[in-house]
Structure formats: C-alpha cells, structure tokens
Design goal:
Protein name: Homoserine dehydrogenase
Pathway: Amino-acid biosynthesis; L-threonine biosynthesis; L-threonine from L-aspartate: step 3/5; Amino-acid biosynthesis; L-methionine biosynthesis via de novo pathway; L-homoserine from L-aspartate: step 3/3
Number of strands: 17
Helix content: 25-40%
CATH superfamily of the largest domain: NAD(P)-binding Rossmann-like Domain
Largest sheet: 11 strands, mixed
CATH class of the largest domain: Alpha Beta
Enzyme class: oxidoreductase
Shape: elongated
GO biological process, one term: methionine biosynthetic process
Pfam families: ACT, Homoserine_dh, NAD_binding_3
Number of domains: 3
CATH architecture of the largest domain: 3-Layer(aba) Sandwich
Radius of gyration: 24 Å
Bound molecules: L-homoserine
Length: 437
C-alpha cells in the first residue's frame, strides 16, 4: 500500500521534532500504523535545516495555504500555533476533506467547537493529543481509557515552564526572570511567555480537559485564570512549614451546582506524588468514580516529547482512515449530540480552603480582631502562626490556613481585614487543595 502523504505546517521546535521522529522511527511507525507515513510537503517561514532529518524528501514552501490546498495530501499537521492563521488553515484543510492533527491548545480551546462541527460535517478527524500536557497521552486516557467512569475531578500541572520556574525558585533560590530565560532557550516557553506565567496556556489546556471529562462544550472564556507572578519566596517557605508545596494547578471538578474550571497557584500536601513533580515535567491526576485516582506523568513540553504525541495522533488517524465517521472516537469524548450545557461556576462560588498571609502590627489585640472578622464571616481557622518580626520595624507576618469557605465570603472578610489600620498592604491568599481520593 502507498504511504499516506502528510503536509506539515511549521518546522519549529515541535514541527522539527515531528519530522525527525517520523523519519527516524519510520519503519516502527509503519509497522504500527499498517502503512508508511511520509511528510511530503511542509510550510515554514524560517527553519534550521541542520536540525532536521529527512528534509531532502520534503518540498518546503513559505505558503501554508498552498499545502492545505494540495490534493495529494490526506493529513495536515498544524504546528504553527496561535489563533490566526492557524484557524483559517485548519478550517480550509477540513473543507478540503483532509484530516488534521494539531498541538495547538489555544486554537482548540478558543475555536474547537467550530472546528469539530466543521470536521463532523465533512467526516474528517481532528486529533489534538499534543495540545495538553505534551508527551503524556492524557486525552487518550480520559477519552478512551476512563470511558467507564463518571469523572469527578481533574487536577494537573499542565504548564512545564511555570513548573520549571517554581521548582528552580524553590530549590535553588533562582530569580524568576533568569529561569524564564532558560525555559525560553530550551524551547519550553510559549512565543509570548506571559501565556505561561499568567496561566493562559494552562487555562487553554484545562478548558480541553474539562470538556472531555464532563462532555461540555469548550468554554475558555469562563475558565478562571491566575498566574504565578505574585508568589513570594516567603510563601514557598511558610507553605513548606505547614507541610505543603505550592504548585500551579489547573483544576476542574463537577459539583452539584456546576463545573469548576480554575487555574491558579495551589498549596497541596507535600506527601502527594503530584506535589513532587518538578522541573518541566507535567502530571495530571484524574479521579474517576469507578477507578479512583489515577496519575499520569511525563514531559509536558519540548521538541521530542510533543512530537511523540503528534505522531501518535497521525498513527491513530491512519489506522482510522477506513472507518465510518460515526465509529470513531468523538472529538470531545461524548457523542456530538450528547454534550450537556452544565454551568461553569464563577470563581466567587467555588468552595476551598485558603492560606492567608498578612503583614500586621505586633501588638496585643491585633490577631484577636482579625480572628473576630473571620468568625463573623463564619470562616474557621485551621492553623495560625505569627512569624518572626521584620528587622527594624514592629510588624510581623501572620499566616493561617482556613477551613472550607465559599470564595465570595472570604473576599468580603479580606476586604474588611485590609481596612484595619493594623494590617499593611494586601492580604496574600493561596487556595489549598488536599487532592485526596
Ligand atoms: N509552554 C508550554 C509549557 C509548552 O511550558 O508547558 C507546552 O504546551
């Protein structure tokens, strides 16, 4: 049988890795797919031929639209990233009857509903394993491996750059900007690194996970997003003293009132496996009602790990080329007509426990006043510690852990506390999750 001809859009970190893996492992991949897979055309504005293998059999152009218009190609791999022209290219490829493989989480999170509908109508596949957690096959695990379960919640470290920065800051006391630069040089960071450090990249990925976990349309705009830039070294230290680690997590959970979708720094018990996932590694913890908690760990970014997921998708598409569209795995795990419109909870309605840190005057009655504001708001304190005074002034950091509270209730209490003349600046808050089964 002739090899399947594939067009590749993008020859950067992931595109280059994909060409290299497909070339290097061609025989093994063909044994798995049942047919050879050949990248015959590629589009790239710039690329480094010295980093690519197999380029001699690829026709390279700088016009990506000419690739999606090429009638010889059955599959298009989109690795340009970003919203545009990726959206137009993918929709054009679908219109031309081509199957699409993409690693573009921004594209799927923002435009996935439109793309999947177009693909459904054309009877073509859109595969996006590499869009979430790089090399970890988490889409396949949730969509297929856990198909027997009601998924209860998912919590994941799904941005390698952010995890790398937090780990290096904690372990080596390195500066934020310095670690970010290294992540960029290693090809982990997004083109716009604020996507990593402000949580947007993780929110894209969480949006996708939430949809395939609960069978709801993609709703990126409703995902609460908070980055890691406000975390201070003292919070890392105090968290440690309470027996916790701070991780930047994406969390989605089904509750009686709706779906939580939130990305933010989170304190988790140090003894949890996921609390010990460091560097650029990702990990996703999925709780199913039948299986219990399951944990998936691996490289969440980088050339070869992401290429591993891209190529696996291409193999899947090749294996499925001859199946009827209705017998394929649905894009969002549930049959297209069976998606449900569950409410996404605003962050103010989410109930969690909190770590609070505030700088207060060191004199009698100050802690009692703060405790009374919390008590009036029905917020129970689980632990409280007054730290050493700052040198040269009479203020001290006061840190505490609360019991579970609905966020809007806490916001009200914090606003009152911040009004006290004995409290300086803003109250730092970090949500705490126990992540037990
Ligand atoms: N910038 C992303 C990360 C790349 O650091 O995880 C993988 O999506």
């Amino acid at each position: 049988m002739n090899p399947v001809k594939v067009g590749l859009l993008g020859l950067g970190t992931v595109g280059g890795g994909t060409l290299n893996v497909l070339t290097r492992n061609a025989d093994e991949i063909a044994r798995r797919a049942g047919r050879g897979i050949q990248i015959t055309h590629a589009a790239a504005k710039q690329y480094d031929p010295s980093q690519l293998i197999g380029l001699e059999s690829v026709e390279v152009t700088d016009d990506a639209f000419s690739v999606v218009e090429n009638p010889e190609l059955e599959i298009i791999i989109e690795l340009i990233g970003g919203y545009t022209p990726a959206r137009e290219l993918v929709l054009k490829a679908i219109e031309n009857g081509k199957h699409v493989v993409t690693a573009n989480k921004a594209l799927i999170a923002m435009h996935g509903n439109e793309i999947f509908e177009a693909a459904q109508q054309k009877g073509v596949m859109v595969a996006f394993e590499a869009a979430v957690a790089g090399g970890i096959p988490i889409i396949k695990a949730v969509r297929e491996g856990l198909a027997a379960n009601h998924i209860e919640w998912i919590a994941g470290i799904i941005n390698g750059t952010g995890n790398f920065i937090l780990s290096e800051m904690r372990d080596k006391g390195r500066e934020f900007a310095d670690v970010l630069k290294e992540a960029q040089a290693l090809g982990y960071a997004e083109a716009d690194p604020t996507f990593d450090v402000e949580g947007i990249d993780a929110a894209h990925k969480l949006t996708i996970l939430g949809s395939i976990a609960f069978g709801i349309p993609l709703q990126f705009e409703k995902t609460y997003t908070e980055g890691i830039t406000k975390i201070e070294p003292q919070d890392v230290e105090y968290a440690d003293q309470f027996g916790y680690r701070i991780k930047h997590l994406g969390i989605t959970r089904k509750t009686e009132t709706g779906i939580e979708m939130r990305v933010h720094p989170t304190m988790i018990p140090r003894r949890r496996l996921i609390a010990n996932v460091d560097g650029v590694m990702n990990a996703v913890l999925v709780k199913g009602d039948a299986v219990g908690p399951t944990l998936y760990y691996g490289a969440g970014a980088g050339s070869k790990p992401t290429a591993s997921a891209v190529v696996a998708d291409v193999v899947d598409v090749v294996r499925m080329l001859t199946t009827d569209p209705e017998n394929r795995v649905p894009h969002l795990a549930f049959q297209p007509g069976k998606l449900v419109d569950l409410a996404i909870l605003p962050i103010e309605e989410v109930e969690t426990t909190f770590y609070l840190r505030m700088q207060v005057i060191d004199r009698p009655g100050v802690v009692a006043k703060i405790a009374s504001i919390l008590a009036e708001s029905h917020i129970s304190i689980e632990a409280i510690q007054q730290k050493e005074p700052n040198e040269g002034d009479n203020t001290v950091p006061l840190v505490m852990l609360t019991q579970k509270v609905i966020e809007k209730q806490l916001n009200k209490a914090i606003a009152e506390i911040e009004q006290l003349e004995t409290v300086f600046g803003q109250v730092m808050r970090i949500r705490v999750e126990r992540l037990d089964g």
